[in-house]
Design brief:
Shape: globular
Order of helices and strands: EHEHEHEHEHHH
Number of domains: 1
Strand content: 5-15%
CATH architecture: 3-Layer(aba) Sandwich
Strand order of the largest sheet: 3-2-1-4-5
CATH class: Alpha Beta
Number of strands: 5
Helix content: 40-55%
CATH superfamily: HUPs
């Protein structure tokens, strides 16, 4: 089982490539959405539920089976790995992430950690910046994501959080 950890603010084409690559290695994929309690912030505009729904719709459209869990933030590093495992209720064979803090904690705990490549040069931060500045961003995300962002008023939300 492969665990993919991220905030997915929002899920983008680079994330999808990581998920597709992981699926070629292992048919059991778990996606852990970090910081689900954060929303309406510049770096975290979407709620955990909004992100989960966006990811579910995108994976369904691509016929990608995956389980999705929330991993709430903790006040300290201590016990974070165990906290993640409690949320997903399994011990993964491999961890995929690009967060240096998560890489460090899981590596120290003895897990096989793979650093996510920055596919297509895309980052969620860049997508949010482009939305805020009225630049083109939709080519960087799956169609289901751009539809959902518009449907929930995400464009105005992000612009409001950046001013």
């Amino acid at each position: 089982m492969i665990l993919i950890l991220g905030r997915f603010q929002p899920l983008h084409n680079g994330h999808m490539k990581v998920i597709e690559d992981a699926l070629k290695e292992d048919k059991e994929i778990i996606i852990a959405i970090g910081s689900p309690g954060k929303s309406n912030q510049k770096a975290n505009p979407f709620s955990g539920e909004e992100r989960k729904e966006m990811i579910e719709r995108t994976l369904k459209a691509s016929n990608i089976p995956a389980r999705i869990f929330f991993v709430p933030d903790r006040p300290s590093d201590e016990g974070y790995v165990e906290h993640v495992l409690e949320q997903i209720r399994e011990k993964p064979d491999k961890i995929i992430t690009e967060n240096p803090w998560t890489i460090d904690l899981f590596t120290k705990a003895g897990y096989d950690v793979h650093i996510t490549p920055r596919y297509f040069g895309i980052s969620a931060s860049e997508i949010r910046r482009r939305i805020a500045e009225g630049e083109e961003w939709e080519s960087m995300v799956p169609k289901q994501i751009s539809e959902a962002v518009k449907k929930i008023g995400g464009i105005d939300r992000i612009k409001g959080l950046n001013h």
